[in-house]
């Protein structure tokens, strides 16, 4: 009898162990089958940060576009690095992190392309602008064309640095073409970017300044007195492209595409830009 009892106890213990192992196995299989359902949702929520190096003259339009885009794409954070196109070009050449570059002239983009620093296939002209003369709102100086900047009544004329600021380069080109550069060069006050030129005119630190039409329209402290004649300088176009070193190519490409959308077009035109051809 004792042998039978020991046998029954061993059999019962074996049965219990097998039952426990079976339960654990079934539970394990159930959790494994559910696991793949969660990662995709988590992956989609990973935040993406894009750095856009762009000409400072685009500031107002890009700020509004930023708000609209981030409202629709809460997982994307847009960070703008705004400045003179030539300065931004140098930063990119020196390895500054950026995903998209928007220049105020083809020259800076051409030089980056020659060094294989942009994705050439994504390059396209984004918007266009015009060059104008502005004076302080209360100014009585009569300037109806660029040649009038040579008048004695204009003692200080603000321009962007011609080495790095496309607006300054366009202005010098136009003044040269119209035969006025030699007459005004000694009274030129150079500024680090086109928004600084605008500030000089707003505060009356200069008698006149040459800026983009969009900059002038953004201020209530200046008035436009003249527009550069057609053909007096190269067309003011703003090319945009992905940088070759972007670490977020998909997100960057999606935002770049949005810049050409009808929604962005409405914003650019609101601030005085024309869409690129």
What are the defining features of this structure?
single chain, 277 residues, alpha/beta, D-Maltodextrin-Binding Protein, domain 2, six-stranded mixed beta sheet, five-stranded mixed beta sheet, 11 helices, metal-binding, ModA/WtpA, Molybdate transport system substrate-binding protein
**Helix amount, in percent?**
40-55%
CATH architecture designation of the largest domain: 3-Layer(aba) Sandwich
Largest beta sheet, briefly? 6 strands, mixed
- The level-1 CATH class of the largest domain: Alpha Beta
Strand order of the largest sheet: 2-1-3-10-4-11
- Between the first and last Cα atoms, what is the distance in angstroms? 101 Å
Binding site for molybdate: 57, 85, 167, 194, 212
Keywords: Metal-binding, Molybdenum, Signal
Protein name: Molybdate transport system substrate-binding protein
Pfam family, one: SBP_bac_11
